[in-house]
Every structure is written in C-alpha cells, then in structure tokens.
Amino acid sequence: MISFENVSKRYDDGTFAVKNFNLHIKEGELLVLIGPSGSGKTTTLKMINRLIPLTEGYIKIKDKKISDYDIHELRWDIGYVLQQIALFPHMTIEENIAVVPEMKGWGQKEINQRIDELLHMVGLEPETYRKRLPHELSGGQQQRIGVARALAANPQIILMDEPFSALDPLSREKLQDDLIELQKNIKKTIVFVTHDMSEALKLGERICLMKNGEVVQTGTPEELLQQPANDFVREFVGIDQAQAKTVDIREGVKPANPGEMDHLTVISSSVPINEILGLLSEQELLAVEVKGELIGTIDRQGMIRILSRQMEGIK
Ligand code: ADP
Ligand code: MG
User: Fold this and answer.
1) Mean pLDDT of the residues in the chain
2) pTM
3) N or C, where is the chain less crowded by C-beta within 10 Å?
C-alpha cells in the first residue's frame, strides 16, 4: 500500500531527519513507527501526505509515486490525527467532522448521515455532541472527534502522530482498546507514531523501530521481543529489565472445554516473562492451569497484551 524506497530527508542546515529509509506498509495493516524523540517519526509520517517534501528516494502509494498524485486528492484520501487540539476551536463538533466531506462536495444529507455514523463509531452520542464546541469536551473525547474527522471521507490511509500521548493513562488505555476494536471493522492502512513501547506492543501488527532517522528493526511484536536486532532494540523494548519478573496471566485467559485443551502445552497462571517469551515463538495457543486445574486457554495476542501492560510498569 505504502512503500518507502531509499527515502531521505535532509534539512537546509544539513540535518538528516530521515536517512535511507525503506519500508513496505501493507494494505489494511496497523504499523507502529516508534523511536526516541528526534528519531524522525514525524518527518516520516508527514512525507507520506507531502506535508514535508523528501530529498531523495521515492514514496509510493499503490505503486504510484506520491509526487504524481494531485495534492488535494492525496491529502483528502489520507486521514491525519495529531497529538492535541487539532480541532478547529470555533467550529462545532459536526462542523469539524464535515470539513473534508464538504471539500469533496458531498451532499448535506450524506454528510449528516456520515456524522451520525462516525460519532457512534467512536462512542459519542450524536444527539449530545453534534452541536458542542471542542472545549466542551474532555481531552479523550476531543481525540475521539479527531479520529472521527480523520475517517470522515472514508480515506484508505490514516496517519496518527502520538494521538493519545497527551491523555491521562485511563483515557489512553480506553482509546487504545477502542482503536483496536474499530480497526477490526474498518481495516484501514494505519501508520501510528508513538514513543511508548507498551503502546506499540499493544497496537502494532508490525512495529518499525527508528533511531537517528534510520530503521533499526521492523517486525511483529514477538520478533522485536524475541529476536532483537541489537542492544538498542533490547534496551528500547525494555525486555532485559522484565525478563525475570513473574506475571499473572489470568486476565488474558479465555474459557475452553477440557477436550479443546488436550493437546496443548500447559503453563501456570503465574509465570516469568522469559518463559512466556520462549513459548510465544513455539505455540499459538496454551492451556493455563491454576492449582492443578485447567481454567482455559491464552493465545499469542493475549500474552502480548499482558506483556505490554508489564512494560508500562517498568518504564
Ligand atoms: P520525532 O518525531 O521522532 O521526534 P522529527 O521527525 O520531528 O522526530 O525530527 C527528526 C529530526 O529532524 C530531529 O533531529 C529534528 O531536530 C530535525 N528537524 C525537524 N524539523 C526540522 C527543521 N525544520 N529544520 C531542521 N531540522 C529539523
Ligand atoms: Mg514527533
């Protein structure tokens, strides 16, 4: 869907914000770009919708160079969600959401239906919120509107630059959960920037870790956890500190009939992280026991989620 081919961005002062960057983002995947502050994440994101021009290489969307697209069509077909208060402060919620559909020339009736649909989708009652101004919403609700607005004209691609990082931990977790649910239905190609590893592990189908404008490693959460390319990855993922810690995995367990668990490897509900990591690579599904009794199964995604939560505690 989106390919970076030897892409570099050099600013006039000589800084390479992004250097020889190669990445292929698949259609319908949620890819997380992660790295320390200044590693080039925002620059990479903004090159996709041509908010920042690239210096070398190509970016292609659906095999067509972005420079060959009409700039307006390109921007309208890419939703963009920023960290904070990117909503227009003097416009109501419905007006904020309607911006791109209006530019695209949709009819009023169609726009109205879409606003209702989107507000439901992001969990806000249209009757209550349509006519409000952004400052009459909480931070978390404003970010939900930001997501709704980005989705408004049904773009194929959504770019999200640290969209939840200004929120309190509870709201952040709720929005992350809702994004996972939403993505199951909408299956957009999403590029999600964060500097928070627990968020990356939780959301990313694949994660691309950057440092000094370059890709250090791209892979699934399990690959980064289990086969870190170098010490920087190990440290950034934070797995070293976590290895020996024991976690309770019961909240990730799904009930199952004894017959379904016959052939599965059994683990205790209280288990060291390094043991989970070992098992992750070998098994899709494990049976979980408490005091000698099987209580259900846990899958790879369930374990990744628990690991993600643990990372939060460590960092
Ligand atoms: P991140 O989003 O990962 O924090 P950025 O993409 O914002 O990183 O920045 C990458 C690098 O590019 C940083 O070193 C930053 O200082 C530099 N940079 C960003 N914008 C400019 C600019 N307009 N001129 C010069 N250097 C810049
Ligand atoms: Mg940034």
Assistant:
1) 90
2) 0.83
3) C
